[in-house]
Write a structure and sequence with these properties.
The structure is a homodimer. Chain A has two domains: 110 residues, 3-Layer(aba) Sandwich (Rossmann fold); 180 residues, NAD(P)-binding Rossmann-like Domain (Rossmann fold), CATH 3.40.50.720. Helices cover 30% and strands 16% of the residues of chain A. Chain A is built from ten helices and twelve strands. In chain A, strand 9, helix 7 and strand 10 form a beta-alpha-beta unit. In chain A, helix 2 runs parallel beside helix 10 and helix 3 crosses helix 5. The longest helix of chain A is centred in the N-terminal third of the chain and has 20 residues. The first copy, chain A, is elongated. At the A-B interface, helix 3, helix 4 and strand 12 of A face helix 3, helix 4 and strand 12 of B.
Chain lengths: 313, 313
């Protein structure tokens, strides 16, 4: 009898998955019926594919569901849902990781090379009197050494940047100076010239970049946030930009998205806003992760990317 | 008796080498006297350190000089000097290579990610409806697979770009689709979405990007030239930018430098001018290359980076 997979991620996403998901399930050898609306009998559902923009918020009736498979890497909008008793899996999509590595590497190099001057400044004056430092002289710190942070850190190491990584619990990433815990945080930030925030959004990580921690960075440092908007205290960042402590911030995520048109980030000359494009789940690759987790569930193997509800990610 | 090393690269460069060059010679175990002005007895000179901005143009009197050691990678302004009969070595400086790899990788990612829109466009409108392709879907072609081209190609391969490389004579660079010769050139350019020019300036490479070859690229391709100004037919490039065949050109080198203030590249909205900063010789690392070549000369070993006068590089 085929499994019932409830695609509850919503009608906006279904057109993107309509092709890849059945194909990935077939390739994994899984006989499944995919439904895109809440079925009359919720207890018939074996797996729920979900996104925070999805069409259900009460998981109670899905008594037989063996897992909720999130299409997003971030789970902060679902992890606190008290009705969710089923195992919850995050999406760790190789396409998403690749996109994130490209965004981080690109914007780190942009700030490292001082590109904006040339992109903005076509005034006919030839200024070649300052040789920029080499990457090996530019200290980069990455907050967060999960799948995305670790991959970005290694791409930067390959380009010779001395990279420090910080995570809540100790990690080991080859070539990266890895620090953890509260004391490690100050050490990781002190003197950093470029900081990239790739932490999950949890009560413990909110405002990790605030007035106190921004003051630890090297004067004129750059901030790149492709992680979560809540990681940064917006007002403290604006104050640090205005004082010159931070030279520029490139922000992809915000507390409110879309970023409201009257938010000061839009008009600030030292802020680059990108509209949550650093890393998108790619249906072609994500569908295979979903299928693999369903295969594991049926085979009694541990799920990939299972969320620890206590830690919040 | 100590060797006589004539630093003929000119008084502008001497302050940068005054510290590193004696230190590198000492470290290589070479007893040498460095002179910075043409000596009364030119036949006393053992080695000439040179740059095209230097203080001699007639090498005839330097009858004992065992080599002319150029501080620049490009030798087009010296290779045709009929008075130069001594062996001529190019500079291949690890610092210069690193800087070039950073410039190329940074600007390839900039165009790949479409950064300029966000760097320029803070208009308060959230546009996140287009997911950019991944690097693995973006075809990059590098013209020139020498030290710099090969290093840049490998950095791009590490970021998943499918890279095609072209060189006059056949080369083999791991992970890179390597082509050579006249037919290989058309094949390398056809359908490329980003082209990076890192060829030496020789009669055979001048105007390698012209109206015909630019037409082979994918519509809306990007051109990045950190190599030599003469590699591109300026008028053909402007025509291709105006027609939309080329979306943007980022140029670091020009036929006349400094680029004249009235040159159309400065004002063109689809051209980014950088003032020959892609890769600078770094005295700290270059001094060791000079010292190593002097050591080799004294030991009767072959020089590093010896120029082939026939090929012109």
């Amino acid at each position: 009898m085929p499994l019932t997979v409830f695609f509850a991620a919503g009608p906006n996403l279904w057109p993107e998955y309509e092709g890849p998901l059945p194909a990935a399930l077939a390739k994994a050898g899984i006989a499944a019926r995919i439904v895109t609306e809440a079925p009359a009998d919720p207890a018939s559902v074996d797996y729920i594919v979900f996104a925070p923009t999805g069409i259900i918020s009460d998981f109670t009736p899905y008594t037989r569901a063996k897992a909720v498979l999130n299409l997003w890497a971030g789970v902060e909008r679902i992890v606190g849902n008290a009705t969710l008793t089923q195992p919850l899996c995050r999406m760790v999509d190789p396409g998403l990781t690749e996109g994130m590595v490209e965004y981080v590497t690109g914007h780190v190099l942009r700030h490292h090379l001082g590109m904006d001057t040339h992109i903005h400044g076509q005034d006919g004056v030839w200024r070649n009197d300052t040789i920029p430092p080499l990457a090996r002289e530019r200290r980069v710190t990455i907050l967060g050494l999960g799948e995305l942070g670790a991959a970005a850190a290694q791409a930067l190491v390959a380009l010779n940047f001395p990279v420090t990584g910080w995570s809540r619990t100790a990690r080991d990433v080859p070539g990266v100076r890895c620090l953890s815990g509260a004391e490690g945080l100050a050490q990781a930030l002190r003197g950093a010239q470029i900081v990239v925030t790739l932490l999950p959004n949890t009560p413990a990580t909110q405002n990790v970049l605030n007035g106190d921690t921004l003051a630890l960075l090297a004067p004129g440092a750059f901030v790149i946030n492709p992680g979560r908007g809540a990681l940064i205290d917006d007002q403290a960042l604006i104050a640090a930009l205005d004082s010159g402590q931070i030279a520029h911030a490139t922000l992809d995520v915000f507390r409110t998205e879309p970023l409201p048109a009257d938010h000061p980030f839009w008009a600030h000359p030292k802020v680059t806003v990108t509209p949550h494009i650093a890393a998108d789940t790619r249906p072609e690759t994500a569908a295979h992760v979903i299928a693999e987790n369903i295969r594991r569930g049926e085979a009694g193997e541990p799920f990939l990317h299972l969320v620890d509800r206590t830690a919040g990610y």
